[in-house]
Specification:
This protein is mainly α. The protein is about 70% helix and about 0% strand.
């Protein structure tokens, strides 16, 4: 996360320079130029905000003077909330506001982080590098501060801008348009309202969960979380039709995401996935906010899921049951992922899985045959290993097999006792 923090800070600086230039060059073009630029005021306000974040002491906002001309000090404030309000008051676009505030906040935290990466010793060019290494006590203090920042920064950004920190990182490092792709079935207006609701309720849940002690929600906190669930359901129903709401949950919910990961190799049809989702969603709702670290809760949920899966299998044809059972094997799932990645024929995963089963059965028969001398068994096992490796390589291709073999210990194990 810390490497991503640094890169995000650099990207934020680029983004804010571009966004700020486009917006404010246009704005300033409509204003009378002033002889005395406010660079000093901006630096002072920035330093004041940095001090305010670190001390967490309330800071009175600077007064904004309305004149016929424009000066940056009219917008700058030592209070981030006032700063944001000032930007909105002059019609600054929300995306530009986000870029400005995000960059400013990230710079503040980068300065805080920087304090813990040097030992305070003045640089002397004749001293070798170990003199500037952190002492153990300084390393421990740095780790404490980094942990605190890792927890504090997402909360600050959520509070000021209503953004999810991890999702914001993903927009820079993973995919900036994933939400729009998943929600392409909705109009632009509904999609915007829906994402705003998601951010709103995520923030409210985070505020409740921040009060947890030892990672456990109190009964009062659980009650608040359940109330938020009901409020969000009502809010979604006010924006979406019943069909759209189900499509939204199928596209975005943690339950659906978990099923997409869990059933790699089964390749459910749309109808099968909808059925599985409805069943799993009911179980997840029943156990929401339960302590799954408790063995009794964990066992109860596992029993409910086993019963659900048995009922689901009862609706399937025998060959689909076999495919569902096979997809519960992590080794087979790994093969399916590799087959997809390297554009291998659909049957490749099953071919290699059958190959493993046949080779391990042959090994088992050799080891249990008391009529074969040990030295001949060793030679035969090496031959089985070599032939299996050759066949798997031929089925998967060199590149896919090279990646698979790093974790496929079973092939190497064929040649031993």
């Amino acid at each position: 996360m810390r490497t991503r923090f640094v890169v995000l800070l650099a990207l934020c600086n680029v983004a804010v320079l571009a966004a700020g230039f486009v917006y404010f060059s246009e704005y300033w073009g409509r204003q009378a130029e002033q002889a005395n630029d406010s660079a000093g005021a901006e630096v002072a306000a920035y330093k004041a905000r940095a001090a305010a974040l670190e001390s967490a002491a309330p800071v009175s906002p600077a007064a904004v003077h309305v004149t016929n001309g424009f000066n940056w000090s009219q917008l700058e404030s030592t209070d981030y909330r006032q700063y944001i309000a000032n930007l909105r008051a002059v019609g600054c676009p929300e995306m530009t506001i986000k870029d400005l505030i995000l960059t400013d906040v990230m710079r503040v935290y980068a300065q805080r982080l920087g304090k813990y990466y040097h030992n305070g010793r003045p640089f002397k060019f004749w001293e070798t590098n170990e003199k500037r290494k952190l002492k153990q006590s300084q390393i421990e203090e740095r780790e404490r501060q980094l942990a605190a920042i890792d927890k504090e920064l997402p909360a600050v950004l959520r509070d000021l801008l209503g953004i999810n920190y991890e999702r914001e990182l993903n927009r820079y490092f993973v995919d900036s348009d994933e939400d729009n792709r998943r929600l392409a079935f909705l109009s632009d207006d509904k999609r915007g309202r829906l994402l705003a609701l998601r951010d709103q309720f995520e923030g409210e849940r985070e505020r409740v969960m921040s009060q947890e002690q030892d990672g456990k929600a109190s009964p009062e906190e659980v009650a608040k979380l359940r109330d938020l669930d009901r409020e969000q359901e009502a809010a979604l129903s006010g924006v979406l039709t019943p069909g759209e709401k189900e499509e939204y949950e199928l596209s975005m919910s943690p339950t659906a995401e978990r099923l997409r990961q869990q059933w790699i190799g089964f390749n459910p049809t749309e109808a099968e996935f909808r059925d599985l989702f409805r069943r799993q969603q009911a179980i997840d709702a029943a156990f929401a906010y339960e302590d799954t670290n408790a063995s009794t809760v964990r066992a109860s949920k596992a029993t409910a899921e086993e019963a659900m899966l048995a009922e689901f299998k009862g609706q399937l044809a025998p060959e689909r049951v076999a495919e569902l059972t096979r997809a519960q094997d992590p080794e087979y799932q790994q093969l399916c992922v590799l087959a997809e990645r390297f554009d291998l024929p659909a049957e490749t995963s099953q071919t290699v899985a059958d190959m493993r089963q046949a080779a391990e059965e042959e090994k088992r028969q050799l080891l249990t045959n008391k009529d074969i001398p040990p030295e001949r068994i060793a030679v035969a096992l090496k031959a089985i290993q070599a032939e299996t490796e050759k066949a798997a390589r031929a089925a998967m291709g060199e590149e896919a097999y090279a990646q698979y073999s790093r974790s496929a210990a079973w092939i190497q194990n064929l040649g031993g006792d």
